[in-house]
Amino acid sequence: MKIALFSDIHANLQAFEEMLADLDSRPIDAVYCLGDLVGYNVWPNEIISEMQRRKVPCIAGNHDVKVNGLITTATSLKEPGKKYAYHLIDEPGRKYLSTLPAHIKLEYKIDGQRLNIMLAHGSTRSIDEYVLIDTNEAYVLELMEEANADVLCVGHSHKPYHRVIIDGKGNKKHIINTGSVGKPKDGNPKGCYVLLTIEPSVSQGSEDIVAVEFIRFDYNIEKAAKAIEDSPLPIEFADMLRQAK
Amino acid sequence: MKIALFSDIHANLPALEAFFKDVETRNTDAICCLGDLVGYNIWPNEVIDEIRRRGIPTIAGNYDWGIGRSSDDCGCAYKTDDEKAMGKVSISYTNQIVRDEQRAYLRTLPAHIRLEYQLNHDKRNILFVHGSPRKVNEYLFEDRDEKSMIRIMEQADADIMCFGHTHQPYHCILNSGTEGNDHFRHAINIGSVGKPKDKDPRGGYVILTINPDSTVTVKDSITVEFIRFEYDIEKAAKAVEDSPLPNEYADMLRNA
């Protein structure tokens, strides 16, 4: 079973469309989104509509919950600044974002063993906590034990990685960061998403039950950067796309 | 958030196609399949392919579990010797026609999918299972004792539990809290797309709507809609009759 995981689109329609085209060209059995559809660019509504059309299951990111209680007036749409990205979101879009779940958990039973894959935006404790490649091992194990997770998939940092930690019982715990579709920060300006393969069986723990592939794809970065420059959004956001900072 | 939930297609491609046509008109935000893609009809591979092609999150039903492992046991609770004999024909026929790639897909389906909500400073878990959280082939009928249902849901940490397996749709609201401290739980059987057993031969599925103000203390803060749709029952029944499958399975489609 091949599962595609993506996150942190951040209203970048150019990147999102290229990701979908790449995804559609591969045999993928299920697709999940780990949040942050909006913020930093001008196409939140187009992205939400396409997510709804494709019925992609999605969890809430820290930018998605910014619409809760947000009041938009004619002047707030003209004010320069980063809040423009949220004021831009239409009513149906706000309604969609405000009812996204915090986590999705896939509970497997493979060869009599339980395997829980937990999808969260930041961490399982907090929507805006960073779980990074060098986050303290003991702390990550504690998070995963608390969430009863064997595989933890997160986004939020825009820096993709796959790390394996062996817990106290000798079990392999996988932590996967999906990177970012529309605002990478790992020095590589190409968009990023993850393909997770679930193996149908595991022989005595010798083989990995999940295989992880990071897909990088080109998109029209200039077009996405220009859209920022032509909007009330902070101009620095455009260079962040060009430099993947 | 509107989620379409469907299950128990049982290799009935005409019913699945009619379901997709219907659900496309209803603007749901997500869609999830609660298992039993195969068995009892001639299109197990085609049903699997259609669901995979759309990338629909799917959990394993008891029949999928059996076929995924090339087992001759689907975990079905057949009562009479006749039912058992017919069931044997169905599972061996299904094992014969399901291809390797499709079997591998069935074998790697998750057992449950859980959505953890944190709206309005309130935690609320929606759990999708095929039969029950304890067992893929446990039947949770509408007449199950309330206390037993609450216990099952508490043990699985589920506030809203959606399941299939019985092919008989219902929605039951339970209060596991104490007076003045309500904790409403919802048990929802989503019916069957391709083999209804509630005397209505049309296909059935559910649309679950989570409202933004949804909390466990409000009884009706979710909406459950039972949708029924017409499909070409004769085509599905004829396919059974023209196959090595027992003809009784054709009449079950006609008579639900």
Task: Explain what the structure shows.
- The complex is a heterodimer of chains A (about 240) and B (about 260).
- In chain A, the strands form 2 sheets. Chain A has a 5-stranded mixed β-sheet with strand order 3-4-5-7-6, with helices on one face. Chain A has a 4-stranded mixed β-sheet with strand order 2-1-8-9.
- Chain A starts with a strand and ends with a helix.
- Chain A contains 7 helices and 9 strands.
- Chain A has one domain (about 1-245): 4-Layer Sandwich (Purple Acid Phosphatase, chain A, domain 2), CATH 3.60.21.10.
- Chain A is an alpha/beta fold.
- Chain B has about 260 residues and is α/β, with parallel strands linked by helices.
- Chain B has helices at about 15-25, 45-55, 60-70, 80-95, 100-105, 145-155, 235-240, 250-255; strands spanning about 1-5, 30-35, 110-120, 120-130, 160-165, 170-175, 185-190, 205-210, 220-230.
- In chain B, the strands form 2 sheets. Chain B has a 5-stranded mixed β-sheet, with helices on one face.
- Chain B is globular, with a radius of gyration of 18 Å.
- The interface of A and B includes residues 54, 57, 100 and 107 of A.
- Strand 3 (about 105-110) of chain A pairs antiparallel with strand 3 of chain B.
Quick take:
The complex is a heterodimer of chains A (245) and B (256). With 245 residues, chain A is of the alpha/beta class. Chain A is 25% helix and 23% strand.
What percentage of the residues of chain B does DSSP assign to strands (E)? 15-25%
**Spans where pLDDT lies below 50 across 5 or more residues of chain A:** none
Task: Give the spatial strand order of the biggest sheet of chain B.
Answer: 3-4-5-7-6
The fold-level CATH name of chain A is: Purple Acid Phosphatase, chain A, domain 2
How many structural units, i.e. domains of chain A?
Answer: 1
Mean pLDDT of chain B: 96
Total strand count of chain B, please? 9
Radius of gyration of chain B: 18 Å
What sort of overall outline of chain B do the alpha carbons produce when their principal axes are compared? Answer: globular
CATH first level of chain A:
Alpha Beta
Q: How many helices of chain B?
A: 8
Order of helices and strands of chain A: EHEHHHEEHEEEEEHH
Which spans of chain B have pLDDT < 50 for at least 5 consecutive residues?
Answer: none
How many beta strands in the DSSP annotation of chain A?
A: 9
Structural class from helices and strands of chain A?
Answer: alpha/beta
- Give the quaternary arrangement of the chains: heterodimer
